[in-house]
């Protein structure tokens, strides 16, 4: 049987639940990797920078994602704690942004009466993508998308989420150290997870990780070997919103 393949269009989706700020793509970048509305916040702004050498247009929409037991975000039709009803986003389409310029996307929070944390995800997609390239007879046209979380929080600071290190163990399959955290309080818990030895040397780091409200516990599988894990270690969560200040620390 002869297979004829005329074209192939590839989509790259970049999920920002655990990424660095000022994330880059081939043709545009964002100035934020997450947006947080605290109780008294009413407005926020996101900038889309066109880093290509031609005019670019972008589509913006709110979508829903849920964290599964493995800690991965998956698209869903409905999300129990959706923030959509509390958000107004505009414009939804921005057209013909010149090279080395940017577009502003404004988010406005509506009145929130219900107590808790609500979350939706902002999807930003390049409408005009890179010119299709032919590789071995296949046309490839990358379509870059970013997906970043938008949080709406309606509760006092003293009720915000915290974590405890529930257990640590060496995974039987990977032979590396695993850490299980239990989330307590309201809303999600986010930070940079760092493991150091007692001299302060970093043995493991993963930036911008979260435990969302749909999970009570989450296990992180590190790259620290079984032998390395036998020494005293310090497990730290750095804050994402307070200049990397330490918001959790435990010695194991």
By DSSP (H or I, 4+ residues per run), the number of helices equals: 0
Bin the helical content.
Answer: under 10%
Give the count of structural domains.
2
Termini separation comes to 60 Å
Strand content: over 45%
Number of strands: 21
Question: Could you name the CATH class of the largest domain?
Answer: Mainly Beta
Low-confidence stretches: 1-12, 16-25
> Any idea what the CATH architecture of the largest domain is?
Sandwich
What composes the largest sheet? 6 strands, mixed
If you compute it from the alpha carbons, what radius of gyration comes out, rounded to the nearest whole angstrom?
A: 21 Å
Mean pLDDT: 85
Structural classification: mainly beta
**What is the CATH homology-level superfamily of the largest domain?**
Immunoglobulins
And the CATH topology of the largest domain? Immunoglobulin-like
| Strand/helix succession | EEEEEEEEEEEEEEEEEEEEE
Global outline: globular
Protein name: Pili assembly chaperone N-terminal domain-containing protein
InterPro entries: PapD-like_sf
């Amino acid at each position: 049987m002869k297979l004829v393949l005329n074209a192939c269009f590839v989509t790259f989706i970049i999920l920002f639940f655990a990424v660095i700020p000022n994330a880059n793509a081939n043709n545009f970048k964002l100035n934020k990797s997450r947006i947080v509305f605290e109780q008294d916040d009413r407005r926020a702004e996101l900038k889309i920078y066109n880093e290509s050498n031609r005019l670019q247009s972008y589509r913006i929409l709110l979508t829903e994602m849920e964290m599964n037991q493995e800690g991965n975000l998956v698209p869903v039709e409905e999300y129990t704690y959706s923030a959509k009803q509390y958000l107004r986003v505009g414009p939804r389409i921005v057209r013909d942004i010149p090279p080395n310029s940017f577009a502003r996307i404004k988010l406005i929070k509506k009145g929130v009466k219900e107590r808790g944390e609500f979350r939706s995800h902002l999807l930003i997609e390049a409408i005009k993508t890179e010119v299709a390239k032919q590789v071995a007879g296949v046309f490839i046209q990358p379509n870059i998308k970013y997906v970043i979380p938008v949080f709406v929080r309606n509760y006092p600071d003293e009720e915000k989420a915290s974590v405890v290190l529930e257990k640590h163990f060496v995974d039987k399959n990977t032979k590396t150290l695993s850490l299980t955290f239990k989330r307590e309080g309201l809303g999600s818990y986010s930070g940079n997870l760092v493991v150091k030895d007692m001299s302060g040397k970093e043995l493991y780091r993963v930036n911008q990780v979260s435990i969302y409200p749909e999970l009570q516990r989450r296990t992180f599988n590190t790259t620290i070997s079984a032998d390395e894990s036998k020494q005293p270690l310090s497990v730290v969560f750095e804050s994402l919103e307070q200049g990397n200040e330490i918001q959790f620390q435990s010695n194991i």
